[in-house]
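Ops channel
N.P.: pipeline sanity check, posting one input/output pair.
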């Protein structure tokens, strides 16, 4: 990520206030980190020389050896300073130096009368050194910083303390930061930043703490180090949202479709474990073991907004599988698809003619399908005489469809035996009807379901009208339509 983009994103995430709360074990290089950060990163960007002078006077002291140098929390500078990062990008910067948790073997925490008492900005009374470290860490991170920086060391810096002396204090500081929920970065201070063993230790710490760990020699900080620090910090901010772009055809499926349900279930399960921006890559594994979807592709990552955008595509063949299920017919390739679309387009054109008539049938019991122009047959013009006048008769015929709703009744009257047995059957059928009206159709009667028996009765009546009677009905309806009302029509069936 480009340096300017990092600063732009970090400003967006922090609202323009880059307040670094520097915590961790004593004698790990916290004050040195603050001093170097101000001298090498912040102060070169200041134009006001008097302000630079004032800020130089406020820098914390740092020295080698085991003796604790920071005995009380300190804001550096005392008031946040506005810094230009280029191209109109201004931010306010301030660092807070904490007392720090005790490292085993460090000197200066004990006085002649026991644990040393120190002054803090948040209490009028002095408090024990250990309590100041704990209270300071909590207050600095929760109230006075937008990003936490835990400075620890591998033991290679000139404090004469081994790595093991820092581990317990390091663990306390990190657990406190996690409990507060503030984004933080761990800085492993070392005099050997490029050493393989140092890099191995950093990798081990990342796994142990599930946090970003960067390796720095805090005595010498450059622009690349600041970029690495803020890039790591951006990854620790919350993931605010993930946008998933699906193949457009998936939007045509109902929400309760097995394919859509499986998709949302997989995404919910994967997203529930992603809370930080640095974890978004886990989404690529959302469909591991799934035959329906390919691995999501990360299209856009907005560190400043805390959002990512992924595209999700169905696996090969899933489109035709879903299409077959929705259409109720097998469609396996492009040829099948083209054939079915042609058939369905033809059926759709026919249905469009019937649609209005079918709606009328539902409303009134009677509907008419008006013939189209290409169905009309125009007969030859004929000269006609009426009295002393002559005229020309133009006659056209066209087929029209008349759809009527005819209610058919059917009954099943099983002989089951005694009156008591008949009463028992009625009670059983009534209880089934109350519990689940639809289930009564599946009641077994003489080896067949009630649905099948009633269906046979209905079909029998539908097919019982003789062909001759059908023709008479058609002729009668034709006369009613063509000759109009007002006359007497007698139909003998």
């Amino acid at each position: 990520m480009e340096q300017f983009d990092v600063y732009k994103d970090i400003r967006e995430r922090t609202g323009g206030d880059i307040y670094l709360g520097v915590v961790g074990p004593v004698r790990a290089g916290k004050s040195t980190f603050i001093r170097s950060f101000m001298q090498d990163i912040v102060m070169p960007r200041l134009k006001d020389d008097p302000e630079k002078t004032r800020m130089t006077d406020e820098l914390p002291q740092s020295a080698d050896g085991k003796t604790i140098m920071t005995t009380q929390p300190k804001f550096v500078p005392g008031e946040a300073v506005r810094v230009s990062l280029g191209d109109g990008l201004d931010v306010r910067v301030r660092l807070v130096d904490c007392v720090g948790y005790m490292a085993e073997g460090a000197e200066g925490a004990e006085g002649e009368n026991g644990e040393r008492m120190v002054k803090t900005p948040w209490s009028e009374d002095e408090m024990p050194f250990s309590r100041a470290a704990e209270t300071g860490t909590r207050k600095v991170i929760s109230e006075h910083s937008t990003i936490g920086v835990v400075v620890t060391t591998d033991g290679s810096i000139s404090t004469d303390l081994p790595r093991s002396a820092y581990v317990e204090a390091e663990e306390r500081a990190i657990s406190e930061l996690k409990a507060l929920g503030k984004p933080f970065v761990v800085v492993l201070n070392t005099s050997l930043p490029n050493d393989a063993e140092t890099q191995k230790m950093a990798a081990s710490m990342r796994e142990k703490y599930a946090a970003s760990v960067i390796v720095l020699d805090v005595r010498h900080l450059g622009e690349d180090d600041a970029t690495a620090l803020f890039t790591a910090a951006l990854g620790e901010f919350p993931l605010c949202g993930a946008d998933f772009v699906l193949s457009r055809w998936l939007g045509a499926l109902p929400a309760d479709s097995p394919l859509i349900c499986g998709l949302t279930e997989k995404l919910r399960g994967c997203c529930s474990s992603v809370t930080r921006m640095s974890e978004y890559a886990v989404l690529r594994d959302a469909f591991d073991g799934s035959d329906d979807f390919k691995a999501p592709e990360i299209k856009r990552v907005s560190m400043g907004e805390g959002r990512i955008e992924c595209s999700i595509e169905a696996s090969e063949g899933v489109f035709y599988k879903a299409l077959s299920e929705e259409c109720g017919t097998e469609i396996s390739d492009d040829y099948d698809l083209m054939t079915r679309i042609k058939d369905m387009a033809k059926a759709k054109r026919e249905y469009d003619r019937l649609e209005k008539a079918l709606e009328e049938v539902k409303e009134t019991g009677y509907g008419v399908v008006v013939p189209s122009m290409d169905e009309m047959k125009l007969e030859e013009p004929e000269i006609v005489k009426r009295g002393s006048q002559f005229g020309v008769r133009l006659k056209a015929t066209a087929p029209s469809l008349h759809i009527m709703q005819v209610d058919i009744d059917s009954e099943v009257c099983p002989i089951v035996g005694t009156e008591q047995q008949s009463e028992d059957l009625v009670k059983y059928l009534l209880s089934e009807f109350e519990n689940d009206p639809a289930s009564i159709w599946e009641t077994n009667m003489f080896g067949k379901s009630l649905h099948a028996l009633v269906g046979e009765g209905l079909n029998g009546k539908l097919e019982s009208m003789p062909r001759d009677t059908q023709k008479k009905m058609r002729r009668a309806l034709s006369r009613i339509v063509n000759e109009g009302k007002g006359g007497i029509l007698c139909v003998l069936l």
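N.P.: looks fine end to end. Residues 334-364 form the longest helix (31 residues).
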